[in-house]
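A.,

Following up on our hallway conversation. Structure tokens first:
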């Protein structure tokens, strides 16, 4: 019998194990926005997933302790923005707790359905919230794509090993 490489290093499932494994998983970076009662809200997400082509559905996760959760929990529509490698600071701003995320230098406008739309992104979508599924201390938000713009210039911003990175050829 052959030994499986790394089997001796196996660990029991914990939140630390999950974080350690997913640090090795490179993902695209998105910002999710919504209109809240007190103004626009938004957060950086690395959990964005295409779910279905017919109908066009996507999903993302959000912690119920997030400052954006009260607005997202009540929102009928959300904005989904794919960030370019030139937008590392924007990603950091929307990830920072307590930041005024929509203050200068963030460039944005009110878009369709009143959703905040960020300027200069690789692509953006406006989606109708179709469901919110409880998942531990998070909710998985399912959203139906209504419209968007895929025409932004640049290359994607990635998140890997706890850092923002650009795509290499």
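Then the amino acids I'd put at each of the 169 positions:
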């Amino acid at each position: 019998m052959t030994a499986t490489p790394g089997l001796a290093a196996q660990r029991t499932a914990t939140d630390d194990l999950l974080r350690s494994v997913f640090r090795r998983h490179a993902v695209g970076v998105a910002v999710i926005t919504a209109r809240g009662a007190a103004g626009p809200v938004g957060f950086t997400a690395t959990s964005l997933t295409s779910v279905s082509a017919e109908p066009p559905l996507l999903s993302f996760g959000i912690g119920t302790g997030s400052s954006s959760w009260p607005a997202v929990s009540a929102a009928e529509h959300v904005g989904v923005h794919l960030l370019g490698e030139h937008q590392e600071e924007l990603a950091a701003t929307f990830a920072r707790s307590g930041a005024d995320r929509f203050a200068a230098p963030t460039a944005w406008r009110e878009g369709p359905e009143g959703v905040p739309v960020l300027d200069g992104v690789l692509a953006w979508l406006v989606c109708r919230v179709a469901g919110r599924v409880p998942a531990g201390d998070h909710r998985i938000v399912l959203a139906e794509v209504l419209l968007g713009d895929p025409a932004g210039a640049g290359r994607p911003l990635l998140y890997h090993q706890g850092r923002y990175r650009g795509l290499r050829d």
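The two ends are 39 Å apart (CA to CA). Curious whether your intuition agrees with the design.

B.
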